[in-house]
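Duplicate of earlier report; DUF302 domain-containing protein input re-posted below.
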Amino acid sequence: MSQIVFSVTSPSDYPTTVKLVTEALKHEGFGVLTTIDVAATLKAKLGVEHKPYIILGACNPHYAHQALQAVSDIGALLPCNVVVREEEDGRVSVVFMDPESVLGLIADPRVEQVGREVAEKLHRVARMVGK
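Output:
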C-alpha cells in the first residue's frame, strides 16, 4: 500500500506554523478553501479538550481544473488536506495528504500526472516550513 501522507516537524510554535504553512501554500499557488479547527469543534460539540489541531483544505485551481476535466468524480478526493497539530510533547507536526498516492487510485495517466506535479509543490511547502 502506498503512503498516503508525508509530514515534517516545524521549528516554530503552533500559531506561527499555521501562518507559515498558509503562506507557503500561497507561494506555491494554493489557496485554503476550508479551515477546520478540530480542537474547537471537539470542545464545542463534545466538551472535550484537545491539543491544537487544524485541517487546511488546500486547492491549486489550475491543477484542480485539470483533474476535474479528466475525471469529473475526482472532486471526492479534493482538496489536498494539510494538518497542523501540536503534539503531546509540544512539537508541531505538519501532515500533508500525498496527492500522488491518493490521485493514483484513479489509474488515469492525466490524473496521475496532476498528482505528481501537486506532490512536488506540496513537498516544497513541507521544506519551507519543516526542519
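The first helix runs from residue 14 to 27.

Merging into the original ticket.
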